[in-house]
Fold this sequence. Notes:
The chain has helices spanning 6-17, 25-32, 36-46, 58-67, 73-81, 101-106, 127-137, 178-185, 222-228, 250-256, 270-276, 314-321, 342-351; strands at 18-19, 22-23, 49-52, 84-90, 97-98, 114-119, 142-144, 151-153, 166-171, 191-194, 213-216, 238-241, 262-267, 284-289, 305-308, 329-333, 355-359. By secondary structure, it is an alpha/beta fold. Strands 3, 4, 5, 6, 9, 10, 11, 12, 13, 14, 15, 16 and 17 form a 13-stranded parallel beta sheet that branches. A two-stranded antiparallel ribbon has the order 1-2.
Amino acid sequence: MNNLPVELLDAILEYIYYExxxxxxxxxxxxxxxxxxxxxxxxxLLFRRVVLQKSEDRRKHLSFCEATDPNTDRGxxxxxxxxxxxxxxxxxxxxxFDSEDVPGLLTHTPRLYxxxxxxxxxxxxxxxxxxKLVRLASDVTSYADSASGSFVSSNPCPSGPLRxxxxxxxxxxxxxxxxxxxxxxxxxxxxxxIGVEIAAPPPKWTPxxxxxxxxxxxxxxxxxxxxxxxxxTESLRVVSFRDAPGRALYPLLQTIGPRxxxxxxxxxxxxxxxxxxxCPNLEELTVVQLSALIPLRGLPSTLEHLSYRNLQxxxxxxxxIGSLPRLRVVTCDSRVTELKTCAELESLCASKGIELFxxxxxxxxxxxxxxxxxxxxxxxASNFALMN
Length: 388
């Protein structure tokens, strides 16, 4: 076991890293105890994705900070491995971080790729905290004031810029401007997931970021959405909506739709069918709930990956496959094997050289935020190599 080639050992640990889309930390910890040869690669994966939740004992927070202490060789090594960090930020208490802790925590993760925040009991970052975040994100000596857009003197971050590429807002106040503050601090963000309703009016400054992907659990007002995409009409390639966009968003869809490669929707209905008309060049369509009563008509002929999760729509998919000449992959819930119609779906896919992927990952687990060569991306440990 100790003499395995490093490449083979890495492949084994990456293979076992995820269990139904979530890190299998129990198995990785066990692997780290096998021998010294296994310890370092297992620990590297253990630190790839870190979640510090409100309900957990503060000792875990302190343990992470101590383990990644940038003043020690081992701490710098472990901190370099962190690619995804999700934290709960609230008011100062015994069990959670407050906003003033965030800049210091991020100095422990110099190669962080994705930041996820659950904001509780906090309306906005203070000017002092925002300045520290901007200093972390930039190697220039000034930052833009969030209210006026004017530039304020600052010192560059001594350890180099922290180039966060993906931002996830899990929760915050409806009228909170924190999303705008973070987007201002990190114009490098290309992947944005908003998991909460946002009603705060957009700021007056012009966005500097260019989004590749936008995922929305709640569709914000048109003014907010227009601002978010005002500099991303040429770069946006992946969009997902929990609620199908209404007619008010059709003009915006006419602008971004022709360039979209992937569209995600919660339900397929007449509204979703209308949205698809604005997206003629899709390579991927993911829908959680297909309708057994509404056929999948008018799908783009460019479609290569079709994903759905409900079990009552196998017949709808079977009747659609023949109209998609470039279809390579069909993804469905693994429980489809319990249905009598599964054999027909398997036979049809096999006859057309289409991969039928039976997915065990819950639909709410999002794929990795990386640039795509061919869909689907999925969530696999090998994607960490692309998060640099």
